[in-house]
């Protein structure tokens, strides 16, 4: 037990190594740009002021979004999705798999759960003892179920999901902006150092590596950011891009695709003035997501969500019945 606890602490300590590396590189880039380039190399005062002002704007947005990506805790399923003491005891005492499956089905009827496991069973996490909401997955690194989990990112030492996916996207965008700004403003002085117009060996070293590091990070971030932009346009997570979510009607990779604009609003919200700020504006609470088909996203389904939130009885509305009706409507059409 003590050994296991010690290994867990070592794992947690080493998990911060990528964050420390990124932080060290960013701090060095700040010193190299502000001091070695702007203060020690540039001679025009107006040029210094313009360079420093634009740099600090990019730097501030980059740091803000990186901080939010790291320290925004992943959202977990609410208590409504946890088994009660009675249900948990009943589930654990039952040895027959089919009977356990039926117990979970009965509990899930009271919840807005529309996706299933590949076996069509209700998705249940044995570690967290929770019925998984749609698009929720268990992260083995964080040791918790995460709402709308996208992936676990070692560079922010955090699980990217419903609570911080917008922050992560903005972090990638402002990282690219930071890199391209640094590279574009450093390039002309790199050339001047290279042809011998400016003689400062120490600054030359910093400018050389500043350009190289900025371009290297920009290229790698460009592909990652482009991939996530494609995911947002399709309303998919990274996990859903590899494994399609399963509904009662079967697997459907585009099950949550509402169209490009609505997909964008799911992550960034309806207020466009907040889209570029690391402020949480995503729609919903992470437990329920509108679905693609008209029969699934119609008012009866939304009514189901509100009734679940209000704590009404499952006799008034049954999510599984609505899903079955949706399947029959699709088959008829």
From TrEMBL:
Catalysed reaction, written as an equation: L-cysteinyl-[protein] + hexadecanoyl-CoA = S-hexadecanoyl-L-cysteinyl-[protein] + CoA
Compartments in which it is found: Membrane
Record EC number: 2.3.1.225
Taxonomy, superkingdom: Eukaryota
Signal peptide start and end residues: none
Transmembrane segments: 12-31, 51-71, 167-191, 203-227
GO molecular function: protein-cysteine S-palmitoyltransferase activity
Name of protein: Palmitoyltransferase
Keywords: Acyltransferase, Membrane, Transferase, Transmembrane, Transmembrane helix
Gene Ontology terms: cellular component: membrane
């Amino acid at each position: 037990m003590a050994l296991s606890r010690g290994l867990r602490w070592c794992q947690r300590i080493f998990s911060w190594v990528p964050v420390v590396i990124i932080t060290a590189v960013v701090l060095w880039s700040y010193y190299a740009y502000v001091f070695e380039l702007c203060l020690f190399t540039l001679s025009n005062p107006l040029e210094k002021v313009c360079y420093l002002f634009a740099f600090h704007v990019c730097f501030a947005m980059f740091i803000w979004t990186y901080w939010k990506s790291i320290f925004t805790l992943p959202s977990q399923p609410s208590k409504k999705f946890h088994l009660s003491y009675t249900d948990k005891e009943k589930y654990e005492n039952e040895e027959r798999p089919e009977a356990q499956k039926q117990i979970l089905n009965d509990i899930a009827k009271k919840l807005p759960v529309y996706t299933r496991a590949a076996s069509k069973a209700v998705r249940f996490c044995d570690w967290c003892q929770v019925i998984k909401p749609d698009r929720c997955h268990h992260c083995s690194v964080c040791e918790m179920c995460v709402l709308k989990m996208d992936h676990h990112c070692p560079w922010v030492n955090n699980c990217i999901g419903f609570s911080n996916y917008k922050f992560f996207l903005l972090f990638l965008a402002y990282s690219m902006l930071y890199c391209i700004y640094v590279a574009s403003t450093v390039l002309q002085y790199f050339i001047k150092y290279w042809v011998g117009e400016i003689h400062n060996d120490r600054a030359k070293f910093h400018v050389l590596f500043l350009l190289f590091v900025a371009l290297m990070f920009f290229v790698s971030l460009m592909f990652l950011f482009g991939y996530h932009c494609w995911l947002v346009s399709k309303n998919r997570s990274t996990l859903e891009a590899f494994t399609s979510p399963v509904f009662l009607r079967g697997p459907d990779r585009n099950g949550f695709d509402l169209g490009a604009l609505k997909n964008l609003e799911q992550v960034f919200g309806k207020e466009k003035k907040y889209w570029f700020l690391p402020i949480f504006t995503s729609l919903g609470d992470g437990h329920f997501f509108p679905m693609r088909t008209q029969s699934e996203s119609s008012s009866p389904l939304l009514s189901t969500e509100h009734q679940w939130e209000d704590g009404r009885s499952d006799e008034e509305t049954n999510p599984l019945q609505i899903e079955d009706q949706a399947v029959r409507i699709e088959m008829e059409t």
